[in-house]
Structures are given as C-alpha cells and as structure tokens.
Amino acid sequence: xxxxxxxxxxxxxxxxxxxxxxxxxxxxxxxxxxxxxxxxxxxxxxxxxxxxxxxxxxxxxxxxxxxxxxxxxxxxxxxxxxxxxxxxxxxxxxxxxxxxxxxxxxxxxxxxxxxxxxxxxxxxxxxxxxxxxxxxxxxxxxxxxxxxxxxxxxxxxxxxxxxxxxxxxxxxxxxxxxxxxxxxxxxxxxxxxxxxxxxxxxxxxxxxxxxxxxxxxxxxxxxxxxxxxxxxxxxxxxxxxxxxxxxxxxxxxxxxxxxxxxxxxxxxxxxxxxxxxxxxxxxxxxxxxxxxxxxxxxxxxxxxxxxxxxxxxxxxxxxxxxxxxxxxxxxxxxxxxxxxxxxxxxxxxxxxxxxxxxxxxxxxxxx
Amino acid sequence: xxxxxxxxxxxxxxxxxxxxxxxxxxxxxxxxxxxxxxxxxxxxxxxxxxxxxxxxxxxxxxxxxxxxxxxxxxxxxxxxxxxxxxxxxxxxxxxxxxxxxxxxxxxxxxxxxxxxxxxxxxxxxxxxxxxxxxxxxxxxxxxxxxxxxxxxxxxxxxxxxxxxxxxxxxxxxxxxxxxxxxxxxxxxxxxxxxxxxxxxxxxxxxxxxxxxxxxxxxxxxxxxxxxxxxxxxxxxxxxxxxxxxxxxxxxxxxxxxxxxxxxxxxxx
Lengths: 367, 268
Known about the structure:
The complex is a heterodimer of chains A (367) and B (268).
Chain A: H1 2-25, E1 32-38, E2 48-52, E3 60-64, E4 69-71, H2 77-87, H3 90-100, E5 103-110, E6 113-120, E7 124-131, E8 137-142, H4 146-153, E9 155-162, E10 165-172, E11 179-185, E12 192-196, E13 203-207, E14 211-212, E15 227-240, E16 243-250, E17 254-258, E18 263-268, E19 273-279, E20 282-287, E21 291-296, E22 302-306, E23 314-318, E24 321-328, E25 331-338, E26 341-350, H5 353-358, E27 362-366
Antiparallel strand pairs in A: 1-26, 2-3, 2-27, 3-4, 5-6, 5-14, 6-7, 7-8, 9-10, 10-11, 11-12, 13-15, 15-16, 15-17, 17-18, 19-20, 20-21, 21-22, 23-24, 24-25, 25-26
Chain B: H1 3-50, E1 57-58, H2 59-63, H3 66-88, H4 96-103, H5 109-147, E2 152-153, H6 156-162, H7 164-169, H8 174-201, H9 208-230, H10 236-265
Parallel strand pairs in B: 1-2
Helix pairs in contact in B: 1-3, 1-5, 3-5, 3-8, 8-9, 8-10
C-alpha cells in the first residue's frame, strides 16, 4: 500500500502543477466583432487583423471577419498548419514552394501571374515565372560570369515588369560609394543586360510591389507605366572618437524610376507621407496633412484632394480603397474611401473584457 | 502482480534520488534568486548614489542566469541517465533481479510499461514542480523589487515565452505541450531500445553497445537524411505533416523493437 501512496503523491503534484499551467494556457481569449454600417459588399471576403503589442505583455493577434473572430498567435502546430494552408491558394503554393528553394528570393505579381528571382548560395542566380496558370519555369545563370556575380553580390532593392521583361534594381558598393544598377532579363528569361541608373542623391532602397521571401501578398502590378515608384535611401556619416561610421536612412519624399530616361526622379518634395498605393497607372499617396495626391505614372500629372478630416488612429490603402480607423469607446470605426468619397463604414468592437483591456494598444488593419 | 504494483515498486526505488534531485533543483534556483536580488539591489543603490539610475529589470534577467540554466540542464541530464539506469540496475548482481522480473506470470511488456510510466511520472513531476517554483520565484522577484522601489518590466508570460528552454517546456498552447511530451516519450523509448538491444547481444559480443548504437542511428538517419533531400520541396504545412508522421512512425517502431527484444531476445 505504501508503494501506491508514492504514486498517488507524485500524481497529486503533477495534477496541481500542470493543472495551474493548463489554466494559464487556456485562459479566455479576447473576442471582437465586425459590424458593417453601410455597403456590406465592400467587406465581403475582407479580414481585419487586430494586433496587440505592449512592452509588458506577450503580443497577440486576431483575425476578425463578418463570420468570426479568432486568435492567430499562440496557436498549436496543428492550427498553424491549417491556417497556413487556408491562406494560400493553388498558384501561391507553387510560388512559395519555388521561393523556399532559394535564398534572398523576391517576386512580383502581375495580371498574368508571378515572376521572381533568387539565389542558390553565391553560385547561381535563378529567375522564375509562373504565368497564365501554367507550371513554373526557371532559368539558372552561373555565378562564374562576372556580370552575374555582381548581381548576386549586390543589394537587391526590388522588381518591376516592363514590356514583359523582368527588371531587378540593385546596388553595388556601400557607405556613400554605392551605384544603383538595373538588371533586365529578356522575355524568355535566359539573357540579362546590366546598366547603371542615374541618381542625384542616394540609391534605390526598395521598389513598390515587391514580395520578399515567402510573401505573396503585395499589390498586383497590373499595367506597364513609364515611371516605376521606388523608395530612395542614403547614408549619413557619423564621426565618433575619430572613427567614421555610416547609417542607412530613407530619404523623405516620393520617387520613381523613369524607364525612358533611365534615371530616378523626385515626384513630390519633402512632404511626409502616411501611406501610398498604386491603382492602374496612378500612384495615390496620403500626406500627413490629410491630402490625397494622385500622380499619373505616365505623364507625372498631379491632382490633390482633401480626404482626411480630423485625427485618425490609422490610415492605409488596400488596392484602390483608403481605410481610415478612428477610436470609439468600445472599439474602432473604419471608414472606407474610394476616389476621395466615403463608400462604406464599419465598426470593430471589443466583445469581452479581455478585448477591452487591449484597445489602447491595438492596431486594426484590413486585408 | 499488476501494472500499478509494478509502477509503485519502480517509484519507490527511485524516491530518494528523485527527492534529492528536486531539492537540488529548488535550492539552486532559490539560492540564485537570493543572490540575484541582493546583487541587483546593491548595484542599483550604487547607481542611485552616483547619478540617475537608468536600469529596468525583467524576470528574464533572472531566468537567463547561468545557475538557473544549469539547474534545468542538470535535471534533464539526470532524467536521461536514469532512463538507462532504470534498466541496467535490474541487471546488477548477475541479473537475478531482472530474471525474477521476467519470470513473473504477467506479460513481459508490463515491465516495460511500468518503467516508461515511472519515467513519465518523474518527468511530469519535475515539470510540475518547476512550474510551481517559477510562479513563486516570480512573486518573490516582483514583491522584492517593488518593495525596493526598483523599476521592473515584462510579465511572467512574456519572460517564459522569450526563454529558449522554458518556452519549449511550457508553451502557450496546451496541444503543443502534449506534442513536446510525446517527443520526450520518444527520447526515453530510444534509450530503452538501446538498452534492450545491448542486453540482448552482450553475451554474444563485446561490441553489443556499438551494434545497438548503430542500429538506432540507422533508424534515426532514414527520416533525417530523407528530410534533407525533400526539405526544399516542402512548405510549412507539409513540413509539419512530415515531422508528425516521423514522430508517429518512430513511436510505433521503437515500441515494436522493444517488444521484440524484451520478449524474444533478452539475455540475463
């Protein structure tokens, strides 16, 4: 009997200790509800990502749709696998698989499908495309070629497609001695030409619409335009204790690469921009003053319209729609604008005390 | 003799060393906590005297300390060693004890089940005690620094989730906790398999342990090498499925081997 008491005592310790752990691990999760005030079609197939972040607590994220609210952090391996599977459609799975085989992979989505580029170590440069629903085709350039080697060792800013040809903007060198370069792959993607891009200042740091690594969710580049929106960065030299070091910074303003003159031009001067998007052949940017600037990417003709009145918690674009998020007592109101006009409004409300406690440190992004 | 009696017997045999292990674990961690609180308070006082103290402590600073990590490492090592010893000690003294165990009228697999059950009771007991101790340590940590008016930040959950070992021991998902326990069971099963293969061959060759090791390395190598071949072709959900499949097949394979060697090959 004494022997059995040993087992019972050990079992009791396990029940007490792991019982309190289980209670911690299954604590009530925050719940949210999405209620549409007007124009429900805008919210069909849309998801609001609620993200809670605070220095003292564990970050938490939720997906809120018209049907349900569910946590997306602290998931089990099983739930993570299901969620991953759910979020990737057939063609995206193929692209993820392709990019998984490469390092430093980047891709871009056009109306016809995906085009991309990646490396196998420093030995090979791989370009791939998956267009018109066909299977993925790849072409491999050997790194022994000095031109290819320069592309492989360069810092890749991003991709764009012009006349069915894939273009990669990258830079060589660093710390104030960099050159911005353009590698253009022919339509068959088996040949590449490299040229330098003229820059007044700095270098191209990123190209709008480029997916990095396994992402395939950047906006689709639907049309060829003469001007390709880019971000421009630069180096600031700092002298400390007689030693010069360099910090990389983003230059303010909006920039584009002029495919005709092969140079980077400034679209708008040093205004602060909250967010921007590309719709067909137009770049739409929201300034800190609440103005929407619309720039034609073929002619650079600009128009400005007032969109933002009063203060907002967040403002961002999704395709051609501008979403403005404002705080209310138990959640947020999300107003949706198209061409400067409000077309819909919805609220995301905290359903329980756990959600209400997160409100001050939560962000709400529609996707 | 039924399974519960065998388990009770195994637990009784390990009670003293197990209590010593728990005492060492708890004493080490609380001694380290005492030293940590004392040294950090003294350091903060020093900073307060010399200027504005710009110093915020987190519970992670304590659980990231070498004595804490070593205490957990020691407990893990002890469990691994005991997984061997739980079999080998029955073979001591010309194996008469093991002979008696194998002669009892119940199935021989009862002996294996009792030993596995005992190991898991001990492992879960350690997890349980560590969890309770962590909670007490966190209360002591926050109460002490609050009473000293020293700034602290970060919650208990955040500290656990950011710590490499503790995040695996106590994951945020209960399902993942059970998965990690299955991996622990598998490690114990591999050790049991090694011992039983070695004990089946020891009278035939002095290389018995080498053969046993090679056999297990061969079994492990198949999925590992296979994974390196197909890794680049798999994406995240498929990788999870592959790992799940490997764990399940490893479980059945080791249990089958244990059954085979225990019932048909074992030499005493």
